[in-house]
Design a protein that fits this description.
There is one protein chain. 18% of the residues lie in helices and 36% in strands. It is built from 20 helices and 63 strands. The strands form 16 sheets. Strands 3-2-1-4-5-6 form a six-stranded mixed sheet. A four-stranded antiparallel sheet has the order 7-8-9-10, with no helix packed on it. β4 and β5 (108-115) form a beta hairpin. Residues 954-1058 form the Small-subunit processome Utp12 domain. It is found in: Nucleus, Nucleolus. One of its GO terms (biological process) is ribosomal small subunit assembly. InterPro entries: PWP2 (IPR027145), Quinoprotein_ADH-like_sf (IPR011047), SSU_processome_Utp12 (IPR007148), WD40/YVTN_repeat-like_dom_sf (IPR015943), WD40_repeat_CS (IPR019775), WD40_rpt (IPR001680).
Length: 1065
């Protein structure tokens, strides 16, 4: 049988216990006979009511006094295999095995052994906690009596007989974990979102980074740090000063939110199911596997030992999925996959035994206290909400009842997995508490299983709204948001279980939910589609609705002429426009029916063109956001690239299968010309030359062809290369062309003379990153030794190049030298990030990460997210056991103002910008240039000297208040006397002030004065001032667009007010 083909394999002589999944078993060789081992093997298993999860097989098992000792045999990578109880009974008789069936709810275990007359239970082991758990109350005893004759099929300990058959064993296994559904196969959310205490900012993980969304000012930013792998959990301190990020491997980073810096690192050495700061901010609660750890909150100041472990609690039989604090930070509750919840205390209490809340039929998704800690709520994955009530009684009475209890039989204990906890504490405690099931509510089955839960108390909402801490508010009201696997969510108010609101927001799992402090905004995340939604349920409006190209890769990007808008196109056949300043998606175009392969903006910036594999190129209007032109080919063709000339009148696109370049008119959308000559698919197009009318086309045939549309005599020069040409780019002046080839070389051409003027060998620059299916070392892996995308800077001095590698390389064009290598990602969850793999994860069959050990549903979710081992494969090779997305850059481009550049990577759109506020230039700086001397010069009304000293000091704050201290009437005079050596720096400051200052007229007065007084110098030194001028244009354009939208939205109101007379106003 398949289940026991793995379990009966011979173990090494020095190994007493097997640990690992099916992927690790193969290193032990072929199956061997059991009888040859000399000892009778034992098989440990966990049951789920239908099947048995094989945990370990040992030849010398340790005595099982407590179920916690099974942790050493727990499989950290998933179940080894599954077998039905009937198959297990058959195998026990055939192989003469022992089987230990653990009942996590009752915290007891029964050992079955095969004999000559069938399968019989030989021993029952009950933990001391289970005995205390069952001792005490008469109501619990009555419940045991009612369950005494349950169809378990296990005779009391010490009874003789042949024992149960396979059918009775099957009934026993079903009773042990009744109701454990298959919804646990649904993957846990890849990350959670958290609100700040004021509810104005939302933190969300994006791969191995964290993004913050300011919902009040409609802006977003990304923290500059990177986690080691994809972030699985976020926790925010109550004051919002500390942010804890935990990745999939259990590595944690503690971040100072105001400074955006990493303070401390910590490795929890296990999968973290949940993490929460206490309400008073003194402790940090972390669920690591089956354990829950209480840490003292680290200080913001750097210390030698920032993390101090306060206490570790155990007791659960499976991984913990949720933790929550009480309002007074004295208690916390944990929920686990073993279908139980437990209540612990932060500080040890004499005689306190953590109560266990059973009776759940599926894994717990969330558990929390109400603000008064009189009720406790648990929500399970199968759609049930259980409300528990707390009762207190004298400890002396509890102890007396416990002393008078007789020892319960083993079969009675095994039948009470969901009974109520009774805590047998010592007599020194004043009172003891117990929890009993109060009510049970069920959600609609049509929504599917519960995937996420968020809650907020009414008292917390009142405090967030500004009510004093001692105000009289109803503490029993709870607002609960439940996300389902169907993509819908429900908002309920407890304890009455009143459904307030319901909405369907997606067709995939709602993987995370959150409620802000005021209870007005609900945040939901859908990992499958990359959706992030903030919903105001009272007014039924979206506060934030964002979705990226998460399920597919971004193929192309382009900056607008002013740099204020970024366009991206992906394999999902969508084109998205992003606001470069706020980071939000403005609009999404869905007209294409196949992956988008190229993007190009029209020079005036009011339109852009996209190409797609559906055989069309489309022009989109940025004013009305519509597709106003569609360019089609005469015969079906797949378009791979697109380019627009400098006049915006000519649109060109290259083909993958017809090997032609199509030329259309922008005005009429008519095909003007069809250029042929290439022998292989066309890879890139670009316009350049002195007049901007020279078209360069690059193809896999190793040639770059130049086509001149304006020249009287048709021109078609051919620039030959040694291998396939993958990408091309023109310098800003149009005189130099750079081509990237398959051998990793960058070749520079003088387009006027059609001569090669230089070359850079970039194979060593781009090399790096080990692929798990490739060579053992990154030095021997040649899969990424070529550049697939190129971009020149605005002044033509720099060249960016990237490709199938984790690096983006920046070169000095004049000296043909490498300036810097940027690593696009440090996320080890992606393939190609590590330079050398861990030898401990390599087996005879290859890397263990490439061995399939996941269920079908998880594999279907993971497939289709990138595997490029075979030519042409874009969405994953289904013949492989697993697919892992590899880090690479498909498109890269400098911003027009030269202060930023963007890359379309595997993780999405990454934007890198200059942080010029930290620069310090000591040129012409002496001891007299101080903030005090600048203030003295301003006091003496010597504005020119004060401004020059501020420019020489080059501190942003000093320059800001010096700049604004100059009177409006003196701007023209001061601008006339600014030296040319400081003009570029002053223009840069003016451009920055346009975007941030509230004195817009004052700043524009400065810009106009500098343009008039220094126009000739700016024209002669365009390269030095170009970045500042474009930044200035970008800021002015943003203000213009805002005013235009404001006026257009209020046109009728303005007409109405103008029509009114003075008396009517």
């Amino acid at each position: 049988m398949r289940a026991f083909r793995y379990a009966l394999e011979e173990l090494p002589p020095n190994k007493h216990a097997y640990r690992g999944g099916a992927r690790d078993v193969r290193r032990f060789g072929a199956p061997a006979r059991v009888g040859g081992a000399g000892r009778q093997p034992v098989l440990y298993a966990l049951c789920d009511g239908q099947k048995v999860n094989l945990v370990a097989r040992v030849f010398e098992p340790a005595p099982l006094r407590e179920p916690a000792c099974l942790d050493r045999w727990h499989d950290p990578y998933g179940p080894l295999d599954l077998a039905t109880p009937a198959e297990l009974g058959e195998a026990l008789k055939e192989h003469k095995l022992k089987l230990v069936v653990i009942n996590p709810g009752a915290r007891a275990q029964v050992t079955y052994e095969s004999g000559g007359q069938g399968i019989a239970p030989v021993s029952v082991t009950i933990s001391q906690a289970a005995r205390a758990h069952r001792a005490g109350h008469a109501r619990a005893r009555a419940r045991l009596e009612r369950r005494r004759h349950a169809p378990l099929g296990v005779p009391p300990a010490g009874c003789a007989g042949a024992g149960p058959t396979a059918a009775s064993l099957e009934a026993a296994l079903r009773a042990a974990h009744a109701g454990h559904t298959a919804t646990e196969a649904n993957a846990r959310a890849s990350g959670n979102v958290v609100f700040t205490r004021d509810g104005g900012t939302l933190f969300s993980p994006v791969g191995n980074r964290v993004s913050a969304f300011d919902l009040t000012s409609s802006r977003s930013y990304t923290f500059p740090f990177e986690a080691r792998a994809n972030i699985a959990r976020l926790a925010l301190s109550p004051d919002g000063g500390l942010l804890l990020t935990v990745d999939e491997g259990g590595y944690a980073l503690l971040v100072n939110v105001p400074k955006r810096t990493v303070l401390h690192h910590l490795n929890f050495k296990g999968l973290v199911g949940d993490a929460k700061f206490s309400p008073d901010g003194k402790f940090l609660l972390v669920a690591v596997g089956r354990l829950v750890q209480v840490w003292a909150t680290p200080e913001i100041e750097r210390t030698f030992t920032p993390f101090n472990l306060h206490h570790t609690h155990s007791g659960h039989m499976d991984d913990i999925t949720t933790v929550s604090w009480s309002a007074d930070s004295a208690y916390f509750v944990t929920g686990s996959k073993d279908l139980t919840a437990r209540v612990f205390t932060v500080h040890r209490r004499t005689g306190y035994v953590p109560p266990t809340l059973g009776g759940h039929r599926s894994a717990l998704v969330c558990a929390w206290f109400d603000r008064s800690r009189q009720h406790l709520y648990t929500v399970t994955r199968d759609g049930a909400m259980l409300v528990w009530a707390r009762y207190e009684q004298e400890a002396a009475a509890v102890a007396a009842v416990a002393r008078g209890k007789r020892k319960l039989a083993a079969d009675e204990l095994l039948t009470t997995a969901g009974a109520t906890d009774e805590l047998a504490g010592d007599e020194s405690a004043l009172t003891m508490e117990r929890w009993e099931l109060h009510t049970k509510h069920l959600f609609e089955r049509t929504h599917g299983s519960v995937s996420s839960v968020a809650h907020c108390s009414r008292a917390a909402r009142a405090l967030a709204a500004g009510a004093p801490s001692g105000a009289d508010v109803a503490v029993g009201s709870e607002l609960v948001a439940i996300g389902f696997s169907s993509g819908a969510f429900t908002l309920c108010e407890m304890p009455g279980f009143v459904q307030v609101h319901s909405l369907s927001i997606s067709d995939e799992h709602v993987t995370t939910s959150a409620i802000n402090g005021s209870g007005e905004w609900l945040a939901f995340g859908c990992a499958a589609h990359g959706q992030l939604i903030v919903w105001e349920w009272a007014s039924e409006t979206y506060v934030l609705k964002q979705q990226g190209h998460f399920a597919s890769e971004v193929n192309a990007l382009a900056f607008s002429a002013a740099g204020a808008v970024i366009a991206t196109g992906g394999n999902d056949a969508k084109v998205k426009l992003w606001d470069a300043s706020s980071g939000f998606c403005v609009v999404t175009f869905t007209e294409h029916a196949a992956p988008v392969t190229g993007l190009a903006f029209v020079p005036h910036g009011r339109a852009f063109v996209s190409s797609s594999l559906d055989g069309t190129a489309r022009a989109f209007d940025l004013v009305r956001y519509r597709n106003f032109q569609t360019f089609a080919t005469p015969t079906p063709a797949q378009l791979t690239c697109v380019a627009v000339d400098t006049s915006g009148e000519v649109v060109t696109a290259g083909s993958l299968d017809t090997l032609c370049v199509y030329v259309w008119s922008m005005q009429s959308a008519q095909l003007v010309e069809q250029l042929s000559g290439h022998a292989k698919p066309i890879a890139a197009l670009a316009f350049g030359g002195g007049s901007g009318s020279l078209l360069a086309s690059a193809a896999w045939d190793g040639t770059v062809r130049l086509w001149d549309f304006v020249a009287t005599k048709a021109r078609s020069d051919v620039l030959k290369h040694s291998t396939d040409v993958l990408a091309i780019a023109f310098s800003p002046d149009g005189q130099t062309l750079c081509a990237s080839t398959l051998d990793g070389a960058l070749t520079f051409w003088d387009v006027a003379m059609a001569e090669q003027v230089g070359m850079i060998d970039g194979r060593k620059d781009i090399a790096g990153g080990k692929r798990r299916a490739g060579q053992p070392s990154a030095q021997n892996d040649i899969s990424g030794l070529s550049f697939r995308t190129l971009s020149f800077s605005a002044d033509g001095e720099l060249l960016l190049a990237a490709g199938n590698s984790k690096y983006a390389c920046m070169y000095d064009v004049r000296n043909r030298s490498l300036l810097k290598r940027y690593q696009l990602s440090h996320n080890v969850s992606l393939d190609g990030v590590l330079d050398r793999l861990h030898s401990g994860r390599l087996t005879d069959g290859g890397d263990v990460d490439l061995i399939d050990d996941e269920d079908d549903e998880t594999m279907r979710a993971r497939r289709g997210k990138g595997d490029w081992a075979l030519p042409g494969v874009k969405q994953g090779e289904h013949s492989n056991r697993t697919t892992r997305r590899a880090v690479r850059a498909t498109s890269i481009q400098f911003a027009p103002d030269g202060t930023a550049w963007a890359a379309a990577t595997t993780e999405g759109l990454a934007i890198y910008s200059l942080d010029e506020g930290l620069l310090f230039d000591p040129t012409a700086l002496d001891v007299d240039v101080t903030p005090a001397s600048i203030r003295a010069a301003l006091h003496e009304r010597d504005f020119v000297r004060a401004l020059l000293m501020a420019l020489r000091l080059n501190e942003a704050d000093v320059l800001h208040w010096t700049f604004e201290a100059i009177p409006l009437d003196d701007i023209d005079l001061v601008a006339r006397q600014v030296p040319q050596m400081h003009l570029a720096r002053l223009l840069q400051h003016v451009a920055a002030e346009v975007g941030s200052s509230v004195h817009l007229a004052y700043v524009l007065r400065w810009a106009g004065a500098l343009m008039r007084e220094h126009s000739s110098h700016i024209q002669q030194n365009t390269g030095a001032c170009l970045a500042s001028l474009r930044a200035l244009q970008k800021g002015v354009q943003a203000h213009y667009d805002g005013l235009r939208r404001l006026s257009s939205n209020n046109t009728h109101m303005l007409d109405f007010l103008c029509a009114l007379g003075p008396s009517e106003l």
